[in-house]
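call fold(seq) -> tokens
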Amino acid sequence: MSWIVLLAGIALWIAAHLFKRVCPEKRAALGKPGQGIVAAALLAALLLMIFGYRATPYVAVWTPPALMTHINNTLMLLAAFLLMVGPAKGGLARRIRHPMLTAVKTWAVAHLLVNGDLASILLFGGMLGWAVAEVIVINRSEPVWTKPEEDRRGDLKAVVAGIVFYAAAVAVHVWTGHYPMG
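ret:
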């Protein structure tokens, strides 16, 4: 049952995100209440993924070498920074069209490097596939990119916010019994 919950969460996450791009008329017809519906679907997807992932039995596929932990941690610091680039609106936000999706791809690759079990491959591989598909769909539906206005201190804000987010993510991992530092 836990495998079904995990896969349902991944599928719902992908469907809720792609709904706006794949069915723009249907999404527009929902109007303002549609935002709440999509937000509720994303929250449900997140909960399904978390509980499904935590409940799945461990099925080893491969054993990652110890070195991957250090590579993962470095990539996760980069992912945390990239996650903050868009909202911070610094110079990098004008150079990277999809900083948050790039952060998700970096996060997913980092976790695939250190987790060799089937549930992790499904979860992080699914999120990597979604982020790649989302970039492709966005670029096709909106080929012209309007760059955001630049905040002179935006990149510094992204660095600080990224470090804070990274520390919080490490704390959550430790709190849930997964020490990420090797």
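The mean pLDDT is 95.
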